[in-house]
Each structure stands twice: as structure tokens, then as C-alpha cells.
Design a protein that fits this description.
Radius of gyration: 19 Å
CATH architecture of the largest domain: Orthogonal Bundle
Number of helices: 8
Number of strands: 12
Helix content: 40-55%
Order of helices and strands: EHEEEHHEEEEHHEEEEHHH
Strand content: 25-35%
């Protein structure tokens, strides 16, 4: 079995700089923040340092990963692309990533990032804070981000509000969990724009939706009616995720 580990050792805070790959994958004292079929996200507090660790464990062979970059490596590289794209949007700071393969078969992987201070997941902020004094500014910044993404020609998959965090006091946005990012207007047309609009329909008020439509639709390759139609398949899936996310927060408060 071979390990491929890429670590920015000069940025790693203690105790992470002293841990081996196996110790990072098995460190037990983290708080479970989010759990999926293949990945778990844990929050670790070490003095003043707070980090998130995403662990991937693959129970079956994913043949596409044998010949492609792993999810953690793609996420690291795509966040670097976004930093260079002048979207006026921050990205989370990734401290390290690593993967373990048997021959070419991906066994597990991790992604370690530093927590954004005073952040809230955008989907939760908009879903739970209808009267927050910063809500209008946050809505405007989210809409402006959508406009800049459209103008850039970038296709970003999973462009959902659960993959953004916001610092409410200054309305700064941070992107995370970007599995695909490339200049591909066709893919953006069929996937990225409808995904983004589906969350506007789920989390914005009707007045906020009207504002977003006025800013975004003139830059899109189709009209509002077609945008609504293309967003519908994503709305059905994202509604289930929204309910599950709110339930998870309620049960873990």
C-alpha cells in the first residue's frame, strides 16, 4: 500500500504537524459536523486553532479514481483556480490534504482546513435568520457573486449555498468543497447556473428573488422561465438536503 501525502508543513499548526497519515485519519477527539455516505467532517479545537478535517473512506472500488485525481486533490486545486479568477469571493484555507492508495485504487483520503472565524453556513444563515440586520447585504453579495461567475464563464459544480460560508458581521463569503471548476460555458449553462438559482428559490424571499433575477438574467443564455425550469430537478434534491441540515443542527445543538 502506498501513501501520497501533500502537506504544507510551514502552515500546519500543532499538533497536526506531528501526526502521521494514519494518526490524522484516526484522531478521535473531533466533533462530528457533517456526515455522508463516503465522507465525515470533524471540527478540532487545539487552543486558539480551530480546524476542520474531512475524511473520505471508500467502501467499494471507484474505478474513475484509479485514473483521475482524488476528490481532495481536485478540491485543493479548484480553490486555487477560484483565487485567481477575481470573483471577489474568499476561499477556505486548506492546510493539507492526503490520500492512500493500494496500487491505483483509492482507499481513503483527508482534507484539513482552518476554520473561518465567526462563520455560518450560508444555507443556515439564510434559512434561520430572516430578520438579521446583515441579511440584505448578504443577499446582495451572493447575487453579485452569481453575476461574476456568469461573466467569468466558469462552471462550478455543486454551486449550492451549503457549500458557502458567510461571516455575518461583514457579509464576507467563502467558497468550499469545489469538485469541478473550469471555463466551460456549456456545463455552466446546464448545471452551475440552475444549481445556483435553485438555492435562490429555496432560501431567498420573493422580493430577494426578484432582485436576483434583475441582476442575473440579463447575463444568462436563457430567460427566467427557462432558468426556473432548469432549476426544478435541483430544487427537489436540495429541499431534502435543507430539511436534513436543519434537523441535524436541531439535534446537535
Amino acid at each position: 500500500m502506498s501513501n501520497h501525502i501533500n502537506i504544507k508543513t510551514n502552515l500546519l499548526p500543532p499538533p497536526w504537524q506531528e501526526l502521521s497519515y494514519a494518526e490524522i485519519m484516526t484522531r478521535p477527539d473531533g466533533q462530528l459536523i457533517n456526515g455522508g455516505r463516503a465522507s465525515r467532517v470533524y471540527r478540532f479545537i487545539d487552543g486558539k486553532e480551530v480546524c476542520f478535517l474531512k475524511r473520505y473512506t471508500y467502501q467499494k472500488i471507484h474505478w474513475q479514481h484509479c485514473w483521475q485525481k482524488s476528490q481532495v486533490r481536485r478540491e485543493f486545486e479548484n480553490l486555487q483556480k477560484i483565487k485567481q479568477a477575481d470573483l471577489d469571493c474568499n476561499t477556505i484555507e486548506i492546510l493539507a490534504y492526503g490520500e492512500q492508495r493500494r496500487c491505483r485504487i483509492l482507499i481513503d483520503a483527508f482534507l484539513l482546513s482552518r476554520e473561518v472565524t465567526d462563520n455560518e453556513r450560508l444555507s443556515l444563515f439564510l434559512g434561520l435568520n430572516h430578520d438579521h440586520p446583515q441579511r440584505q447585504l448578504v443577499v446582495e453579495k451572493v447575487t453579485q457573486l452569481g453575476q461574476r461567475i456568469i461573466e467569468s464563464g466558469l462552471a462550478i459544480t455543486d454551486l449550492f449555498f451549503r457549500n458557502l460560508v458567510v461571516v455575518p458581521k461583514d457579509a464576507n463569503l467563502y467558497l468550499l468543497d469545489v469538485q469541478y471548476c473550469a471555463r466551460n460555458r456549456y456545463r455552466a449553462k446546464i448545471k452551475s447556473y440552475p444549481q445556483f438559482w435553485s438555492n435562490i428559490l429555496l432560501f431567498f424571499t420573493p422580493d430577494e428573488q426578484n432582485l436576483a433575477a434583475k441582476m442575473l438574467v440579463p447575463h444568462l443564455p436563457y430567460d427566467l422561465k427557462e432558468l426556473d425550469t432548469r432549476a426544478q430537478p435541483f430544487i427537489r434534491k436540495e429541499t431534502k438536503r435543507k430539511i436534513a441540515e436543519l434537523a441535524f443542527i436541531k439535534n446537535n445543538c
